[in-house]
Amino acid sequence: VRCIASARDAVDKAIDMVYEELAAEDEDEEECSCGHEHADDEECSCGHHHHDHDHDDEDEDGADEMPDEDLRIAEDRFFEDIAAKKSRLKPSVDTSDEFFARTEARRCMECSYLCLKCVDVCPNRANIGIDLRETGLFEDPFQVLHIDAYCNECGNCATFCPHSGRPYKDKFTLFSLREDFENSTNSGFLVENDEVSIRLDGKVYQGNIGKDGSLNADVSEEIKAIIEEVFLSYSYLLSPVEE
C-alpha cells in the first residue's frame, strides 16, 4: 500500500510540474505589453489579440486530462531527476574546506586500533575489554573476553561487529559453571578454586593458578596472559553465579 501511495505521489508531482510549465506558457501568450485595457476580441495596436475567457470554461473538462504521451514524458523527466539524486552522494558542504575535513576525520571511530563495539552494544554486558597493553603480546591493546553466564545469545554483538566475527561465539570465553563449559564449543576457560580448565579449538587442557596469579598450563603465552590478567585485575568476574 505504501508503495502504491508513493507511486501516486510521484505521478501527481510529475503532473503538477507539467501543469506549471503549461500555465507559465499560457501567461506569456495572454499577456499584453502595451498596458492598455481592451475589450474582448479587440486587437491591440501592439498586435496582441484579446478574446473572451468566459468561453474557456467550456473546455476545462478536456484540459483536465493530459495526453498519455505528454504524461509519460513528464513522468520520465521526473523519474530521471530522482535517479540522478540517487546516483551519487552529494555533500552538504564544500569538502575542500579544511574545517569540514578535520571534522570528518574526528568522526572516525578508529576501530582498527580500539574497537570494542561488541562491548558497547551488548544489552547484558556479556563482553568486556581486558587491558593487556603491559604484556606486549597483542597487536590490539584490549582483548575482548566473553562472559558466558551473562550471555543469552541474542546475537546483537554479531550484528554490530564491523568485522566478520560473532563475538559471542568467537571470543575467548570465561565460564562460571562446569556444566556450561562442557556444553559449549567456545574456546575459553573455567576456574574452580586453583584449578583451571582451558579449551582451545576443541581440545581441553588442565592447569592450576597460584595465588600470585601465575598460570601453570601447556598453553600459549597469549592465553596465559589473558587468564592471569583476569585473575589479578578482574577477579570479580570469577565470582560464583546461580545455577
From TrEMBL:
InterPro entries: 4Fe4S_Fe-S-bd, 4Fe4S_Fe_S_CS. One of its GO terms (molecular function) is iron-sulfur cluster binding. Signal peptide: none annotated. Residues 55-65 have a biased composition (Acidic residues). Residues 143-171 form the 4Fe-4S ferredoxin-type domain. Residues 30-65 are annotated as: Disordered. Transmembrane segments: none annotated. The keyword Metal-binding applies. Keywords: Iron, Iron-sulfur, Metal-binding. This is Selenate reductase subunit YgfK. It comes from Candidatus Ornithospirochaeta stercoripullorum. The lineage of its organism: Bacteria, Pseudomonadati, Spirochaetota, Spirochaetia, Spirochaetales.
